[in-house]
What does this fold into?
Amino acid sequence: MTDLEKELENVSNVPKLHLSQKVRTQHGIGIIVNLNIPFNGLYLSPERAEAVVWYGTEKNEFGNNRWVSFTHKLQDIYTIEKTKD
It folds into this structure.
């Protein structure tokens, strides 16, 4: 097996994600607002890639809205399949 084939096998289990995609995480359902991929994706290292997922806003103690978002490893994010109504 070549190096390329090994790396393609390594990344085959990583979900295919894009900005504004709806995803499921341990914190619930949210929207991807940022993708952080080391070396601009030049090297295949999915274990180091992360996404910032936004879950909405909620009021803080001063009555102002604040963003509720968390950073997750790509391998910890699950895509939500589109359902036909």
